[in-house]
Amino acid sequence: MISELSFAHHHRSELVMVKTGKRLGLIVNPVAGIGGRVGFKGSDGLEIQQRALELGAVPQSEIRTIQALERLKPLKEELEIIAYPGEMGGHAAAESGFQTRVIGAIDAGNTTAADTRNAAQEMQRLGVDLLLFAGGDGTGRDIYDAVGDAIPVLGIPAGVKIHSAVYATSPRAAGDLAASYLSAGMSSLREAEVMDVDEDAFREGIVSARLYGYLRIPFHRRMIQGAKAASSLTESASMRAIASDVVERMEEDCLYILGPGTTTRAIAAELGIHKTLVGVDVLLRGKLMAADVNEAQLLHLLEGRKAKIVITPIGGQGYLFGRGNQQLSHEVISRVGEGNIIVVSTVGKINSLRGRSFLVDTGDQAVDEMLCGHVRVVTGYHEELVYRVTC
Question: In 62-85, which positions are buried (b, 16+ CB within 10 angstroms) versus exposed (e)?
Answer without folding.
Answer: bebbbbbbebbeebeeebebbbbb
